[in-house]
Write a structure and sequence with these properties.
By secondary structure, the protein is mainly beta. It has one domain. The chain contains no helices and 17 strands. It is globular, with a radius of gyration of 18 Å. The two termini are 31 Å apart.
């Protein structure tokens, strides 16, 4: 199969050798400060983890795609690589606000103009082409956190599209990786986190990494139509 390279507006899908992670060199931690705010939310948000501005989406060839096969991909989150990302949307939950009496204000607050993100790398450590499913350019993924009961719980949900044309696969060649920025949170609870990824009906997990959240993010909320914590029997 012809090797496909995806040109990124902010970077390139790069072939590498020598690395800290399964033989692939990854970018070093950022030295440039990011002055955008860290998300401070008292509830769970729906994720929008876009692959780094891919200029085109190419569906994998039908002869390669096999939903019954769990592909050999690794997911590595580096919480020391912090970037600022423009993100103005009314669907992003506003930061919590406290009035003079100490009550939480739930009224509408203008959304963030930009937020801090950390990097997830999707690595192909195998000797064959691998694929990852995306939805409208987004990685199908949520973050989970380790609660005080020492059990993993979702702190985000993913909203699936009802349009079949929203879904496609990106081929990652051997030794290549894709970078996906994911939300960075602040809060009073310091704990371990991991990324849960769904691709063609299969579930993957990243490495564990340290982070801060608000404890109420561990409380599951009533999901709206199309939203999911991933991994249900029907795949949604």
């Amino acid at each position: 199969m012809t090797k496909i390279t995806f040109i990124l507006l902010l970077g390139i899908l790069i072939s590498c050798s020598e690395s800290e992670t399964c033989g692939i060199n990854l970018p070093a931690a950022n030295s440039k400060d990011c002055d955008s705010p860290v998300i401070d939310t008292i509830g769970q948000m729906s994720t929008a983890f876009y692959l780094k501005n891919i200029s085109q989406r190419i569906e994998s060839e039908s002869s390669f795609s096999n939903p019954t096969t769990k592909h050999e991909l690794s997911f590595y989150v580096n919480n020391t690589i912090v970037s600022c990302q423009k993100y103005r949307t009314p669907y992003l939950m506003a930061p919590k606000m406290i009035d003079s009496l100490g009550n939480v204000i739930w009224e509408y607050i203008p959304p963030y103009d930009s937020i801090q993100m950390i990097s997830c790398f999707i690595l192909n450590c195998s000797s064959k082409n691998q694929q990852i499913q995306i939805s409208d350019g987004k990685l199908i993924a949520i973050q989970e956190a380790l609660g005080k009961d020492n059990k993993w719980a979702p702190i985000e949900c993913f909203e699936f599209s009802g349009c079949g044309n929203s879904y496609s696969d990106i081929i990652i060649s051997p030794g290549d990786f894709l970078e996906v920025p994911i939300y960075k949170y602040s809060g009073e609870l310091e704990t371990k986190l991991r990324l849960k990824i769904q691709s063609n009906g299969h579930i993957y997990y990243s490495n564990e990494y340290s982070g801060k959240i608000n404890a109420k993010q561990l409380i599951k909320r009533e999901l709206h139509f199309g939203e999911s914590y991933l991994g249900n029997k029907n795949g949604y």
